[in-house]
Amino acid sequence: MTTRRAFIASILVTGAVPRSGWAAAGNPAFLAAAQEPDGGFALFGLTAGGTPAFRVPLAARGHAGAGHPLLAQAVAFARRPGTFALVIDCTTGRVIRTLAPPEDRQFNGHGVFARDGGLLFTVEQSRGTSDGVIGIWDVEGGYSRIGEMPSHGIGPHDLRLMPDGQTLIVANGGIATDPTDRTKLNLDTMQPNLAYIATDGTLIERIELAPDLRQNSIRHLAVRADGLVGFAMQWEGAEGTAPPLLGLHQRGGGPVLASAPMGEELAMQGYAGSIAFSGDGAEVAITSPRGGRIHRFGADGAFLGAVSRSDVCGLARHPRGFLASDGLGGLLLIEGGEAHIAARSDVAWDNHVVCLDSSNGPIG
Amino acid sequence: MKRTVLLTLFALSAPVAHADVAEAVAAHILPGFAGFARAASTLDEAAQADCRPANVRPAFEAAFDAWMTVADLRVGPSETGALSVAFWPDERAATPRALARLIEAGDPVGRDPSAYAEVSIAARGVFALETLIHDPAFASYGPQDYTCALVQTVAADLHRQAVSLDQGWRDFAPILTSAGAEGNATYLTPDEAVRALYTQLLARLELTAEMRLGRPMGTFERPRPKQAEAWRSGRSLHNVLLSVGAAQALAQALADGDLPLTDRAADRVRQAASAIADPAFQDVEDPQARLRVEVLQQAVRAMRSAIEVEIGDALGIAAGFNAQDGD
After folding, report:
1. Distance (Å, rounded) from C-alpha B296 to C-alpha B292?
2. Residue range A21-54, pLDDT digits in tens
3. Are A336 and A318 in contact (CB under 8 A)?
4. What are the C-alpha distances in Å from B90 to residues A264, B79, B249?
5. What's the whole-model pTM score?
6. What is the largest CA-CA distance in chain B?
């Protein structure tokens, strides 16, 4: 068995120096899944300007993706309850591998590569109990499954790699679901958490919110280069309560909840769909497709303002601010609170835009 | 010559729907907000002249009527501006509790219309005023009482909000009507503006069916009459009819042609409403009365379906991809 170091060396020997793989795929800066006008689905690579660099047809609706840090390979995850993930060669559009979760596991929509690209981590849950699991796949061994570790919570959704490259952070949403139809089973007793887990499976730190926010499902994550974590939430409690939908956390400290003024908060309809830090890290933003709104906050949690855009959901770090995608085919560049049209096409962009630029922290 | 060709091409490629958005804005939305601003001004004057309930109520009724023509819009300035005009539903009785706190403390903010915008939105707008002038727990105040000043402050604040919404909508209207123009980052194509207003139409009728009627109906075992909208002033049924009438008017302005199904469905809503005995839905604990509200609810749902067929299907507009199906 080749060591990981030998694997990386072999990539270098064959001339596939870092990023050159992606150059062959048109140097995309982002990955995004979409529904096309004929009802079919595809995964797109997008340049920093928002124009398609590649397009790979998908057999079913995608949710999020993960880009390999070196090779032009992307993993497209199916929506929950996910029965497959596709490893795609983005230069040829060919599906290299179809990953299936083991018995009694389902993919939960997100995953991330290790810093050196040797391993892929996938967010999963037990079909029976909704107990969270992180699946470990050996890239070098043809994406074979080599193990799993607990996510230390119920119904995990998003997963990121911390800047140290040694620690994973998982959003354990807390919601137990029916394995066939996503029916929520435990809203009265749910208890979401944020778990820092070493790549060997050791639980390092776990954060829970105050009891009155127990029904605020922690679902999506963004990590700044200095390790500041932003988490976006979806409220499962009583309507009209306007809970905060954004939290910030720095290892070892307590969570900081970030609220908008009440009218603004209510307009988000208790739902944040994506989260990202801005290119310079000074801002963090969340999207609400239900409210057709983007909320911008300072890195200290202070509300900065809102941008209105129908069905907006995908959000990613962009050198000039944020890139936002929506179900009407728009890609908007959000720069200092101003929205500019980056591109528009006749597709419905799905929930997430994934940043491939690793210069400012972890992939994904 | 070249110019003519370009203009022709543009005319061919520009969807007819563009003109309809302009009509909906000019004939329905802008006059609605202007009317609300006028009615709120009259209400403000009435309250300043004499704060007592008997004097304020007629102008309150007129202002609420004017508000209902545009109350259910949640687009543009109304996305965040509508909630502080009409804070409802109020599941936890936040409005009476917030008002009681102000009165108990004699909070100076209740005498300061310019600072009142900072208080909880539950203590602002038409439902705060309704509570003060209709709820027996509040409405027995005299001209020297704190509550009198509070009524005047809430009325003045409502007037300010109405003026600001009216101005905001006049500023926002060009963004809707210039959908698809270069630099319009809110509506990237003309169709998106049509879609935005169409979505409001459906949401408006859904709100009426599921909230204005659904909340007081509760479950058969447990009706919740106090969850009716504007029950204190007995406007619950009236609001349903005004909301349906506004939806019909907006649909007509937006549509390119007659809407026979929608019009017939609206007639059936009015018919079902005429069978209802208590305009505040306070009789829903009686199964027969509850049934009549349910019949009305079904008629409103049917009107929503008629609009889906006559406008949505005709224009090929589908519901939001992410809004409907998140994760």
Report:
1. 6
2. 898 988 899 999 999 999 999 999 999 999 999 9
3. no
4. 17, 18, 28
5. 0.89
6. 76
Pick from A79, A240, A267: which is nearest to B79 by CB?
A267
* Cα–Cα nearest to A235, from A213, A257, A209, A256: A213
Locate tokens 């890239």: which residue? A139
Interface of A with B (CB under 8 A): 35, 63, 79-80, 109, 157, 219, 234, 238-240, 262-264, 266-267, 271, 273, 289-293, 306, 308-313, 326-330, 332, 339-341, 344, 348-351
- The per-residue pLDDT for range A299-356, each reduced to its tens digit, is 999 999 999 999 999 999 999 999 999 999 999 999 999 999 999 999 999 999 999 8
Q: Give the gap in angstroms from C-alpha A136 to the nearest C-alpha of chain B.
A: 23
Q: Which residues of A touch B192 (CB under 8 A)?
A: 310, 328
Closest in A266, A327, A332 to B321, CB measured:
A327
From the CA of B140, how many Å to the nearest CA of chain A? 30
Closest chain B residue to A62, measured at CA: B327
> How would residue B79 be classed by pLDDT, with cut points 50, 70 and 90?
very high
Question: What's the CA dihedral at A297, A335, A159, A97 to 10 degrees?
Answer: 170
Q: Is the pLDDT of residue B17 over 50?
A: no
Residue B2 has pLDDT above 80, yes or no: no
Per cent of chain A over pLDDT 90 is 82
Work out the mean pLDDT of chain B and round it to a whole number: 92
- Residues B83, A267: C-beta atoms closer than 8 Å: yes
Phi, psi dihedral angles at A44 (to 5 degrees): -115, 145
Cβ contact B255:B23 at 8 Å? no
How many distinct helices (H) and strands (E) make up chain A? 3, 28
Strands A85-89 and A73-78: antiparallel
Interface of B with A (CB under 8 A): 74, 76, 79-81, 83-84, 89-91, 120-121, 183-186, 188-189, 192, 195-196, 199, 320-323, 326-327
Q: Which two tokens stand for residue B240?
A: 């349903």
**Searching chain A, which residue's CA lies closest to the CA of residue B321?**
A327
Q: How confident is the model at residue A103 (pLDDT cuts 50, 70, 90)?
A: very high
Tokens of B29: 């939305």
CA angle A290, A293, A297 (to 5 degrees): 130
What is residue A4's predicted lDDT score, i.e. its pLDDT?
55
pLDDT band at residue A3 using 50, 70 and 90 as cut-offs: low
First to last CA, chain A: 28
| Beta pairing partners, A217 | A234
CA separation for the pair A49, B23 (Å, rounded): 36
